[in-house]
Amino acid sequence: LVGIPALCAALDAGTPGAAALDVFPAEPEVPAALLTRPDVILTPHIAFSSAHSVLELRRRSTEDLLRVLAGVPPLNPVTRPDG
Predict the structure, then answer these.
(1) Do 39 and 11 form a contact (C-beta atoms < 8 A)?
(2) Taking a C-beta distance cutoff of 8 angstroms, is the pair 40, 20 a contact?
(3) What is the DSSP string of 17-38?
(4) Taking a C-beta distance cutoff of 8 angstroms, is the pair 63, 76 a contact?
(5) Mapping DSSP to helix (H, G, I), strand (E, B) and coil, where does residue 58 land?
(6) Confidence band for 61, pLDDT divided at 50, 70 and 90
(7) Strand, helix or coil at 62?
(8) Pairwise CA distance, residues 25 & 67, whole Å
(9) Cα 20 to the chain's mean position, in Å?
(10) For residue 83, what pLDDT band results from cuts at 50, 70 and 90?
């Protein structure tokens, strides 16, 4: 987690040289301090989404469903943080 003022100060100092963000403190609002910076790339929180990643997500989900229906544990189980 990075505070926006600290990130801007670090960018102004040159370290890091740039930042890419897809999550913001008060979504969906983007902090004004980041909007016009040429050293910051801003994307929506769905930046992972591509045709390939969606197909891969569907493939893995289907494979795990078939495993469970066959009585085999899934390769990618979803667990709750509390157990």
Answers:
(1) yes
(2) yes
(3) S-EEES--TBTTBPPHHHHT-T
(4) no
(5) helix
(6) very high
(7) helix
(8) 39
(9) 11
(10) low
| Contacts with 70 (C-beta within 8 Å, 6 or more apart), sequence order | none
With contact defined as beta carbons under 8 Å apart, do 24 and 1 qualify?
no
Task: State if pTM tops 0.85.
Answer: no
Contact 43, 49 (CB under 8 A): no
For residue 26, the Cα-to-chain-centroid distance in whole angstroms is 15
Distance CA 1, CA 6 (A): 11
40, 21 Cβ separation under 8 angstroms: yes
What is the rounded CA–CA span in Å between residue 19 and residue 13? 13
**Measured between alpha carbons, how far is 62 from 16 in angstroms, rounded to an integer?**
40
pLDDT of residue 45: 78
Paired tokens of 69: 């229906």
* CB-count burial class (<10 Å; 0-12, 13-18, 19+) for 26: exposed
